[in-house]
Amino acid sequence: MKIQFRIHGLNANANLRVWLEKQLERLHTLIPVSTADVVLERGPNSAPAYRAQVHLAVPGPDIHADARDHTLEAAWLKVAKKLRQQIERRKLQQQLRHKGHRQHPLGGSRWSGAAVAVRT
Q1: Structure pTM?
Q2: In the chain, how many domains are there?
């Protein structure tokens, strides 16, 4: 996985990058990620001050998430949670589609053969 970091308004050290890379590797175990674009910002005139944004290039539609909070760690945890939820939702939809468990949106199955009573 290729990771690109764009960090604005923060003093990012190697430890921060290593920690973020480990977090992204956990997501890579759930879905194959070819590239990850990470933006971390600290806006001195905005509240909350920290913003984290991630764009993952994956098979199918790309996955992205954005979050703000008062600490960088809290903003990052929100983004990671949103990404994990999107990945799990996509995997569940794929499983349902492949196993044939998809149901008609109006209730029972589409071809259930239920007769409809007609009043005359």
Answers
A1: 0.75
A2: 1
